[in-house]
Amino acid sequence: MTTTRTNKYLLLASAVLFTLSPVAFANNDANPVSIPMMANAQVFADFTDDMPAVLNYFTAATEAQVIEFYQQQFGEAIAQERKRGRLTLSYQQEKRIMRVVISQQNNKRQVDVIIEKIQE
Questions:
Q1: Whole-angstrom Cα distance, residue 95 to residue 81?
Q2: Integer Cα distance of 10 and 22 in angstroms
Q3: Where are the chain's structural domains?
Q4: In this predicted model, what pLDDT tens digit does every residue of 9-20 receive, in sequence order?
Q5: Quick one: which of 28, 33, 35 has its CA closest to 49?
Q6: What is the SS3 assignment for 29?
Q7: What's the half-sphere exposure (Cβ side, CA atoms, 13 Å) at 21?
């Protein structure tokens, strides 16, 4: 009787460990990404749990102040494009591409920051 009870507990313990192991592996894949934002940012979307990471916020800062802030954070922009009133700045650091999109929204600026891994 003890052997049967021990086998049942062993089977139950194995099933629990087997069920939990994919969760543990899944958590190891998720690496939160830290995206710098201006001090007065009003965040309305934050998807920085994994790559590609996206942060969207409003700021009272001028476009020039936003550009200067991200230049200090990411270095010199490798590309710059203005379309439909939106300025897109592209940066590269190591194996990441960062895009900062700045657009006018009433009396504020909307800032969208997207960070992606470079595909090898």
A1: 22
A2: 20
A3: 1-30, 42-117
A4: 444 444 433 333
A5: 33
A6: helix
A7: 6
Residue position matching structure tokens 């960062």: 98
List pLDDT tens digits, range 102-119. 999 999 999 999 999 988
* Residue 17 half-sphere exposure toward CB, CA atoms < 13 A: 6
Amino acid at 27: N
For 55, the 3-state DSSP assignment is strand
Q: Report the alpha-carbon distance of residue 86 to residue 89 in Å, rounded.
A: 10
Query: Reading across the β-sheet that carries 79-83, which strands appear in turn?
Result: 42-47, 53-59, 108-117, 96-105, 86-93, 79-83
Which two three-digit tokens encode residue 95? 């194996």
* Cis peptide bond prior to 22, omega within 30° of 0: no
Alpha helices in the chain (DSSP H): 2-29, 63-74
